[in-house]
Amino acid sequence: MVADDEPDIREILTDFLTAHGVDVVQAADGLDLLEQVQRVRPWAVVMDLHMPRLDGLEALRRIRAVDPAVRVIVVSGSVEETREHLLAAGAAVVLAKPLQLADLLPALGLAAGAEPAPVTPAAAGAPAGGPRRGGVLVVDDDEEMREILVEMLTLHGHAAWAVDGAADAAAAVAARGPDVLLLDIHMPGLSGVDALPVLRAMAPDMKVIMVSGTADLQAARHALAYGAFDYITKPVNMARLTEVVDAALLFHRDPD
Prior knowledge:
This protein has helices at residues 7-19, 30-40, 56-66, 79-89, 104-108, 143-155, 166-176, 192-202, 217-225, 238-253; strands at residues 2-3, 26-27, 44-48, 71-76, 93-96, 135-139, 159-163, 180-184, 207-212, 230-233. The chain is an alpha/beta fold. The chain has a five-stranded parallel sheet with strand order 2-1-3-4-5, with helices on both faces. A five-stranded parallel sheet has the order 7-6-8-9-10, sandwiched between helices. α1 (7-19) runs parallel beside α6, α2 (30-40) packs parallel to α3 (56-66) and α7 (166-176) runs parallel beside α8. 37% of the residues are buried. Residues 112-131 have low confidence and may be disordered.
């Protein structure tokens, strides 16, 4: 069971766990989580501490009352202040935000201290012409989203790094010349759509994939008209994202 009020975080955790052979059910808030636990009786729960309708700490206490055997992993942005209370309430493990996905499997008892193996190009179905790894720059003002996207792209075999805004993106493009730019549309200050022509002018061969929290078709058309390679929406489907990144890398290396 994965419980978080952020749909993009739920989807990314679900994609990650599913890729490691885990069946996942999602919950969007504390009450939804409690109802699902009573109905599904999962063997483990990964839950955010701060959720609407029923706070994570109270949800944890009620979950333990319903099923004392369930393994509960709590993700908190203030681990040092909350760890003692959460462990006393029945949490098996408390992980810090932004969550490092490599910590999740050991916390669930699925890999005794071992990190998931990176996906190699051959295992992922790379084209025969050579490896599809590349440099991917993630630009997003959400710290947790940046961390998760970088980790997932790294596990997929890419060299990925992140910045939190358009100004830093321009500096990163000038300094390191990424093959692919993953650019959030809605950011404070200069939006992704406004920054796109400047970034494309700096690196004409770089492929830009726009990311938006809303299915804004007008913004998508605008971005594509200004040279974006593709457009995806949040919550990000990681399988879809890696497919688009791989396709962008193929075009980057062989535009014909």
